[in-house]
Amino acid sequence: MKDASELCRSTFSATAFVANPRAMEKCVRYIHQDLNRSFKMEFLDTPDSEDEHYEAQRAKELNKIYGPKGSPKAYDFMFDMHNTTSNMGACIIVSSAQKSFELHMANYLKSNFTDTKCFIWISKLEDWESHTVNSICKNGITLEVGPQPQGVARAECLAQMKVLIQHGLDFIDKFNQGSAFPGFEMEAYVTINHQDFPRHSNGEISGVIHPKLQDKDFLPLHPGEPIFQTLDGSEVTYEGESTIYPSFINEAAYYEKEIAFYKMAKKRITVPAIQAQMD
């Protein structure tokens, strides 16, 4: 991403930046608080203070550069690039089923990406205020590539992310040139809620992801199938009423958030046609 020519297309140019440079220097997710949960207006609009956490300051700084969030001056699009310790392959996250441009891009990426399995995740069916860094722009998607351990760079993950970004930039260029993208139906995964680990009364984790569930991201999980193995060797089963599709299974960064995995539903989403209005 340091080669500026790779980020240029005939109708626009893009720029790359590190969202949390201090955390990157220390090889940690964040210094004081999760930056990618810091971009709601209620946080961005708070008065500046000397004792404010670094990530709170950084969120406001990025909002001034690439936003302001919700304003006509905000940048048109942002890719939020992540790696995950979970076995998710390439996952394209769209904030809402109401975001037609983002859904078209996600479909374009999936159609053109052949390196590994590729999934489209919609955070919510309805419109809502996202808390991620790309929400300060008019549009944006999150890209998750894994599995990759924390603090480790894997060549195949870097290559897959680069391919996704190149296709994403190509899509924007085609849209800017007036290409028509007809409506379609797509298969996507939609968030239901998340599942915590089993715990002792003092809050300590009392079980781990069951071997039969580990690395089975986006595969069907049926009622009665095992999800945890307790430290005494017994099984905890999924007691839901319908089949779900787990994701972010055993994600290292989510232990502190008390998330063992996300519960997803598989949906068919209808996406309307889009085409840029040319002057």
Give the total of beta strands: 11
Query: Outline, from the CA principal axes?
Result: globular
Q: How much helix, percentage-wise, in residues?
A: 10-25%
SS-based structural class? alpha/beta
Q: Please give the largest β-sheet.
A: 6 strands, mixed
| Distance between the ends | 32 Å
> Could you report the average pLDDT, rounded to the nearest whole number?
95
Strand arrangement, major sheet = 3-6-4-5-7-11
Give the helices and strands as they follow along the chain. EEHHHEEHEEHEEEEE
Beta-strand portion reads 15-25%
Rounded radius of gyration (Å)? 20 Å
Q: Which stretches are poorly predicted, pLDDT < 50 over at least 5 residues? A: none
Number of helix segments?
A: 5
Describe the protein in words.
With 279 residues, the chain is α/β, with parallel strands linked by helices. Helix content is 21%, strand content 24%. The strands form 3 sheets. A 6-stranded mixed beta sheet has the order 3-6-4-5-7-11, covered by helices on one side. It has a 3-stranded antiparallel beta sheet with strand order 8-9-10, with no helix packed on it. The chain starts with 7 loop residues before the first strand and ends in an 8-residue tail after the last strand. The relative contact order is 0.15. The model has no long low-confidence stretch (mean pLDDT 95).
